[in-house]
């Protein structure tokens, strides 16, 4: 083996080790807050506040069993699931059709139009939340699931449109052309041919949308008061509802309950989610 080849292999191995180490460090940084919250959820308040931190302690379930009834966790988790899944489904329906139009219908500046719609996500959410609240209050639809779902669609649809446009651009146009030669309209070709073929992309984008909607706080805080409040509102309420300082054990327990469904969902579908988002974001 020549010196040049040996040096090239050595550099390749060094680069590979650097990538692995970087990936491990990034994973640790992302997982550390979740691990810390999980530990605190099983600690007594005195152990949580101990300095330096206590890593070996007698675990307790009191934070899960004794402190959660006051926050109505069950109903609020159900509200969160209804709103997140509802917002994801509506966004998939509307954003999917918008993405198809930008990918297939010959429009001048379609790519620029799509980029501008995606760039609308740069608008500060509070700039949209206040007008939405004023309109919802004027027509009497505050604190309703449907109102929050429509508000969530305002930030989900641009993502869905952009990702699905990438999927549609990756499909050969001959599929629709053959269907239209057989008598299908453009709309019929979309529903009968393109949608079934693009189901993996729709599934990945739906999962991404549900995860985004599940963790949203601002719109739910502004548009709900009691019946449609989400788990995020429960955490905010628990943090501000004590006179002796935050009950970090109860907050950690509710936090774990709120992130656990998202973690389990992401782990269950990670292969399809990563592949689908990568295809939708890069193709076309």
UniProtKB/TrEMBL annotation:
Q: Which UniProt keywords apply?
A: Cell membrane, Membrane, Transmembrane, Transmembrane helix, Transport
Which Pfam families does the UniProt record give? BPD_transp_1
Which positions, given as ranges, span the membrane? 20-39, 81-103, 115-136, 148-168, 189-214, 248-269
Sequence ranges assigned to domain ABC transmembrane type-1 in this UniProt record = 77-269
| Cleaved signal peptide residues | none
Identify the main location: membrane
Q: Which domain of life is it from?
A: Bacteria
Its membrane topology: Multi-pass membrane protein
Gene3D superfamilies to which the protein is assigned, alphabetical: MetI-like (1.10.3720.10)
Q: Where in the cell is it found?
A: Cell membrane
Assigned protein family: Belongs to the binding-protein-dependent transport system permease family.
Q: What is this protein called?
A: Binding-protein-dependent transport systems inner membrane component
């Amino acid at each position: 083996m020549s010196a040049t080849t040996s040096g090239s292999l050595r550099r390749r191995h060094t680069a590979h080790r650097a990538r692995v180490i970087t990936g491990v460090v990034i994973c640790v940084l992302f997982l550390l807050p979740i691990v810390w919250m999980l530990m605190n959820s099983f600690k007594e308040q005195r152990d949580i506040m101990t300095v330096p931190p206590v890593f070996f302690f007698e675990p307790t379930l009191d934070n899960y069993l004794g402190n959660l009834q006051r926050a109505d966790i069950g109903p609020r988790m159900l509200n969160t699931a209804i709103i997140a899944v509802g917002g994801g489904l509506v966004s998939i329906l509307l954003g999917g059709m918008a993405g198809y139009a930008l990918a297939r219908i010959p429009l001048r500046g379609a790519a620029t139009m799509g980029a501008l719609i995606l760039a609308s996500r740069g608008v500060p959410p509070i700039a949209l939340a206040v007008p939405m609240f004023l309109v919802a209050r004027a027509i009497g639809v505050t604190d309703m699931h449907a109102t929050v779902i429509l508000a969530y669609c305002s930030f989900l649809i641009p993502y869905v449109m952009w990702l699905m446009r990438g999927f549609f651009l990756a499909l050969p146009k001959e599929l629709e052309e053959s269907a239209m030669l057989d008598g299908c309209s453009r709309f019929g070709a979309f529903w009968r041919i393109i949608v079934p073929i693009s189901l993996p992309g729709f599934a990945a984008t739906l999962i991404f949308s549900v995860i985004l909607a599940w963790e949203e706080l601002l719109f739910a805080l502004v548009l709900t008061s009691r019946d449609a409040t989400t788990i995020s509102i429960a955490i905010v309420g628990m943090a501000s509802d004590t006179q002796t300082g935050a009950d970090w054990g109860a907050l950690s327990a509710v936090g774990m309950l709120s992130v656990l469904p998202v973690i389990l969902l992401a782990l269950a579908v990670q292969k399809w989610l990563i592949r689908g988002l990568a295809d939708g974001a890069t193709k076309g």
